[in-house]
């Protein structure tokens, strides 16, 4: 697609319809330099020995929440460092993470204001849920910055290192140092390698020191806009090391999730969005209730393999129970109607 400012209505219409939007990092002041330096530092961090105190002191908890904060490793798949606060951040990365978070937070804040404008919302009802997340402080919010190092396969075939999923929050910005991110088009039939031509804006990677940038709509944004902005379905597929000439693929993902604040769904109604149905409405309850509901209905694509399998099995049982309830009330319903993908 032709390059356009992210706040341009054409670009936002594409994001709304498809759930994703490739952008040129070089077009956004301060962001390119910040991510070039963060990638350099992240590679050094992941190269540290496993017993380094920069890793052990910030080890993630085990279980489904392992990817929510701290350092974790899934053997044969990926290493992850998730940051949510300045006081739970490895010291060797803190300064650059704070700088990168600041420029990205402002960028995302501006996009959310532009999205509100496209929906004809009064003021910007997203702001109470976005402003507290714009900088990295010692106060934890749901927003996070994740650094990934994916293991490339040693064989001749590519591997799926992150299965098909949708992100939970409002918006995600995925910065890649080499191709791997794939998005599902709106027809649901075609996977698009979004970090390679012709999907990229012209010369985007060349102008951005080889880095690519992709915006993804999240499930919270989809709910609050009544699916006027779709959540982008995506996955990560890594080419073999022999093809990429590199044993790893690195990426950084800034995931904007809503801060805790009273949520009134009527604030998100307009001539574009329409009215929320009775079962969808929230009248001053915590945004955390909505986010928890979305999170609990999906399994975590970044959890360890055995944890993912347990979560999938638990969800399968819940879905079967849902189907039985729906069948008892409304007649026969197929299992596909209540199937939910993973989350990130």
How would you describe what is shown here?
It is a single chain. The chain has 344 residues and is an alpha+beta fold. The protein has ten helices and 14 strands. It has helices spanning 9-18, 31-47, 53-56, 91-118, 127-130, 204-207, 219-224, 241-244, 287-296, 305-330; strands at 20-23, 70-74, 78-83, 144-151, 159-166, 171-176, 181-184, 191-193, 212-217, 234-238, 248-256, 262-264, 283-286, 342-343. Helix 2 (31-47) crosses helix 4 (91-118). The chain is globular and about 55 Å long. Residues 333-339 have low confidence and may be disordered.
What structural keywords apply?
10 helices; five-stranded mixed sheet; 344 residues; seven-stranded antiparallel sheet; alpha+beta
